[in-house]
Amino acid sequence: MKRILIVGGGTGGTILANNLARRLRQEIDSARASVTLLSASARHMYQPGLLYVAFGKMAPSELYVDQETLLDPAIHFHVDPVESFDLDHNEVKAKSGKTYGYDYLAICTGSRPVLASVPGLMESAHHVYTEDAAVKTAEALRTFEGGRIAIVTGVPHKCPMVPLELTFMMYDYFKDRDLLDKVSFTYTYPIGRIHSLENVAKWAAPEFDRMGVRYETLFNAKEVDGVQKRVHSEEGSVVEFDLLIAVPPHKGMEVIEQNKLGTAGWIPTNRATLAMEGRENVFVLGDTTNLPISKAGSTAHYEAEVLGENLARLATQGGAMRSYEGKVFCFIEAGKDRATYASFDYKNPPQPRPPSRAIHWFKLAYNRLYWNSVRGLL
């Protein structure tokens, strides 16, 4: 029997498990293959929805579905987070004390915000990367009556369009409250343009100019003075604020760091095969990779489709065929009832279209279609 073990029940892990269950149906039914998924939670969160929670457009309860309901019945699912990896002996040990063996392993444990990496950021800033943080951000926005808003971005971070989306959505939020004349926006970004993707930056800068959003590039946050309400950068500049919104730097999950599988929790990954560098039977998906592409749900989705096909071939025919080409697709909320998107891969940069109402409504529809997507129905 070929045992495939998936560690991590987020977007990538769920799609991969369902993809394999479908491709290996006959092998699973005849006990020639098995698919096991280990997750840290019994609930699956739709993480992009946190942005909408922050603006009162979704309730926290709408973010969750029981993980088991998303999985093909043939998948062995356990809420049993992994604590140690023994890659030399093809096994992992979980919190329960149980050891799980495998022939092929896929690691898709995700990433986490690390506000503590910038002194004062945790105490002074709001963000949208956890349910609790998104709820607190919603309250901070609701009660804000005017002043200086600073949007400070660290890298790397999950969901590459979030800094732009937060800015556009806050602008319209305060416009709807007739407070624009009492609010100023300062947007910072760590490199020499307002987004890591050049064409996205070229599209967004005129939009910011139109809205009167001030932006400062080459701004890497060094520390936050919560008393004086100032953010100091490594480059020596200062941004003042009354409300600080952060897109905090991220790391991979602590279990990856603790097991020394990669630097800062990012596992070295072959960009085409998605194999962990130096390992033939260990693969990496989504945020957990160190690949120079966006850490987005669509990235994990496209990677999972490629890896599902290849793992099914390895389990049945002994050879993988398909390469991951760096495909990513990201919606960009561009203000009230307007959105665009960025579609790109390793070779082809994005070319954002003018924002439209149709794309905005398509993104809202996808918020509902996500659950069918991870089930493998889309």
TrEMBL record:
Pfam family for this entry, one: Pyr_redox_2
GO MF: oxidoreductase activity
Domain of life: Bacteria
Protein name: NAD(P)/FAD-dependent oxidoreductase
